[in-house]
Amino acid sequence: AKSGGLTEAQVKMATLPAGSRLRYLARGGRDRTDIPDDAAAADTAVVDEWPVLQCSNIYLLPGVPQYFSSKMELLARLLSAEWEARSAAYRVVLSAEETSVVEALNGAVRRHPDVCFGSYPFVGHPTTKTVVTLEGRLVEGGYVRNGG
Question: Can you give the pLDDT at residue 43?
């Protein structure tokens, strides 16, 4: 039986899982859904000609090696760009010795378990005595640890 000029087999092969998304990957680390509508027509030269299917945090890639390699390169750029957009890292340079900030730093670590903290003493520097780092990924409602 045909549905709108397609066979049942064609319809089945073209049916996407509920909640999935087609990602037209661009060579610059974006996908077509990130390109404003008025710019989409002018930007088609940089967008890959066929999409990758995304289901939640899973991307379905082609099995043919040269197509897989091409899509993997574009997907890596996209994911790197998305990660960078959501990541935050701060470095606080202190003129205080590390031992004098340990208690305050431990309190901050307890109050913010989703942020990665680091504390690094500087020896022999005239003004910098300690560097504290804070890292996380921005998500709705706060931060989560990078890699977590």
Answer: 43
